[in-house]
């Protein structure tokens, strides 16, 4: 049997379109993407939509949207498993022809009777079909399924890059159904045929599929096809160490977008969930592609940690190029039904980003700090800010106005003008800052007053100070 570990790498992500893109699925997709992209290989997408009752076009669209937001580009068109059913059936019939599969005419009632008898006698309830070695001349004219003629002796060994060698006794594996009596293929057959036809060399997926690998290997062997390299990765757990569920918070990728985490931070964080490269925590895509290996994946379940995600998010926002960050903030606002920005607001935000991004850990925090350029005059002070705008402080701001009219509009000159007026009243700069913040932004928590003044300019600064005198 040939090995697929040499030659061009081809990986795939194969979600079922029954809902949103789960955070665990997103990490599986990321691992496949990193492994392929880091080796100049191909990353393919297959939609496993054979369950027609549960598969919906809306769920497929949600998965594609989630992958696109996450920045995981795939090669070629997404493949529909359902549309390939004739090819799956063709392979099942080829296995009939080569003697590795057989027609089974057993009814559901006969199978259940076999299992009840086995339970009563303390035997294995794995169904052993009486049709396995039957002479075709004895076949009735009745509905049948096509079953794999699985080996009964020995063991199947899954050489797994994460779990190590996993040995499963062949007496634990039944002659699984590959083609139902209505001619539709089962999931097990469809996956193998699709992976083979798509040229998949490495199957990287959750370890809940580990037992499937043993069954699927038997189909590969029956068809004389090369077996892909297996890598079954542990699932993600919540902070309490239990399997991830809704009680732990966000499960879908779109929820993380709505919470305002940059896609780069999500890629970085998800890469570190169950995989490590030394002590490196913060890294970019280029480093991740270069470093990622199956050997770096741990065997224990990873734990979701929102504090780590938020910390990484802040680092990625700070490190982002301003133009790219501006586009992502606008995409965040659009995705969360936020306001669409005017050209003037976009220009103001672009000027403010160099210092705004240094202290914001998420986009909502950044947008909140940008209120001084995104809001509109007159800036009505909120409850806290209003307290700092008493008659005395309004009077001092009135005195400050002519000093600012004549100051050269640099940080040093502005600081000197404000400090001079404050000292004339026996105040520190820190005491004059709150009413200035209230005048410029209507808030108490804002960027530095001098950063705000430099961004909005002389005329707008003076106009906002004038508004407090009304």
UniProtKB/TrEMBL annotation:
Domain called Glutamyl/glutaminyl-tRNA synthetase class Ib catalytic: residue spans: 9-310
Main location: cytoplasm
CDD domains according to UniProt: GluRS_core (cd00808)
Residues reported in the UniProt entry to bind ATP: 246
Domain spans labelled Aminoacyl-tRNA synthetase class I anticodon-binding: 326-467
Pfam families recorded: Anticodon_2, tRNA-synt_1c
Catalytic activity field: tRNA(Glu) + L-glutamate + ATP = L-glutamyl-tRNA(Glu) + AMP + diphosphate
GO annotation, biological process: glutamyl-tRNA aminoacylation
GO function term, MF aspect, one: ATP binding
GO cellular component: cytosol
Residue window of motif 'HIGH' region: 15-25
Enzyme's top EC category: ligase
Gene3D superfamilies named among the record's database cross-references: 1.10.10.350, HUPs
Motif 'KMSKS' region per UniProt: ranges: 243-247
Entry's transmembrane regions: none
Assembly behavior: Monomer.
Family statement: Belongs to the class-I aminoacyl-tRNA synthetase family. Glutamate--tRNA ligase type 1 subfamily.
Protein name (Swiss-Prot/TrEMBL): Glutamate--tRNA ligase
Species per Swiss-Prot/TrEMBL record: Rhodovulum kholense
Taxonomic lineage of the native organism: Bacteria, Pseudomonadati, Pseudomonadota, Alphaproteobacteria, Rhodobacterales
Gene: gltX
């Amino acid at each position: 049997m040939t090995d697929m570990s040499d030659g061009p790498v081809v990986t795939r992500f194969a979600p079922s379109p029954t809902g949103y893109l789960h955070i665990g699925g997103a990490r599986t997709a990321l691992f496949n993407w990193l492994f392929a992209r880091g080796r100049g290989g191909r990353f393919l997408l297959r939609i496993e939509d054979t369950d027609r009752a549960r598969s919906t076009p809306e769920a497929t669209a949600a998965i594609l949207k989630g992958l696109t937001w996450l920045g995981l580009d795939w090669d070629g068109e997404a493949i529909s498993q359902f549309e390939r059913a004739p090819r799956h059936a063709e392979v099942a019939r080829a296995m009939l022809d080569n003697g590795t599969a057989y027609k089974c005419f057993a009814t559901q009632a006969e199978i259940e009777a076999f299992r009840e008898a086995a339970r009563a006698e303390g035997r294995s309830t794995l169904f052993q079909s009486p049709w396995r070695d039957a002479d075709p001349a004895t076949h009735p004219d009745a509905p049948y399924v096509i079953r794999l003629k699985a080996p009964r002796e020995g063991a199947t060994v899954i050489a797994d890059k994460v779990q190590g060698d996993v040995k499963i006794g062949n007496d634990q594996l039944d002659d699984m159904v590959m083609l139902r009596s209505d001619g539709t293929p089962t999931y097990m057959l469809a996956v193998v045929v699709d992976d083979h036809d798509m040229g998949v060399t490495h199957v990287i997926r959750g370890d809940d599929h580990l037992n499937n690998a043993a069954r699927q290997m038997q189909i590969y062997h029956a068809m004389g096809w090369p077996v892909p390299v297996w890598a079954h990765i542990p699932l993600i757990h919540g902070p309490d160490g239990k399997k991830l569920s809704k009680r732990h918070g966000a499960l879908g990728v779109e929820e993380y977008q709505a919470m305002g985490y940059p896609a780069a931070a999500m890629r970085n964080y998800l890469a570190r969930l169950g995989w490590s490269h030394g002590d490196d925590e913060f890294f970019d895509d280029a480093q991740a592609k270069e470093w990622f290996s199956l050997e770096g994946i741990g065997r224990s379940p990873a734990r979701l940690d929102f504090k780590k995600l938020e910390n990484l998010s802040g680092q990625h926002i700070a490190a982002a190029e301003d133009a790219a960050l501006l586009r992502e903030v606008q995409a965040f606002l659009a995705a969360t039904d936020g306001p669409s920005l005017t050209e003037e607001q976009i220009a103001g935000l672009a000027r403010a980003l160099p210092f705004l991004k240094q202290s914001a850990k998420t986009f909502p925090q950044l947008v909140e700090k940008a209120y001084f350029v995104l809001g509109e005059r007159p800036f009505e002070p909120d409850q806290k800010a209003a307290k700092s705008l008493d008659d005395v402080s309004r009077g001092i701001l009135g005195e400050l106005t002519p000093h600012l009219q004549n100051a050269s509009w640099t940080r040093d000159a502005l600081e000197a003008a404000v400090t001079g007026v404050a000292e004339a009243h026996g105040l520190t700069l820190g005491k004059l800052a709150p009413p200035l913040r209230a005048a410029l932004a209507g808030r108490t928590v804002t960027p530095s007053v001098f950063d705000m003044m430099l961004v909005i300019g002389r005329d707008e600064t003076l106009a906002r100070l004038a508004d407090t005198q009304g």
